[in-house]
Amino acid sequence: MHLKVFGAAGEVTGSCYLIECGSTRTLVDCGMFQGKSDEKNTAPFPFNPADITAVLLTHAHMDHSGRIPLLVKEGFKGDVYATLPTMELVKVLWYDSANLMREEAEWKTKKNSRRGLPATEPLYGADHVDKAIPRLKAVNYDEKIEAAPGVSVRFRDAGHILGSAILEVWLEEDDKKVKIVFSGDLGPQDTVMERNPAIISSADYVVIESTYGDRLHRSNAESREEFREVISAALRDKGKVFIPSFVVDRAQRVLYELTLLRDEGVMGENIPIFFDSPMGVKATEIYKKHMNLLSSEIQQYINLGKDPFSPGKLKYVTSVEDSRAVNQVDHGVVVAGSGMINGGRIIHHLKHGIWNPINHLVFVGYQARGTMGRRIVDGEKHVRIAGEDVMVRAAIHTINGFSAHGDRDDLLAWASNFTTDPLFLVTHGEPASSKAFSETLERAGMKAALPSPGQGIELKPNGSAPPSLKERPVLL
Question: Second label for 259, Cα 20 to 30 Å away, from 171, 345, 362, 447?
Answer without folding.
Answer: 345
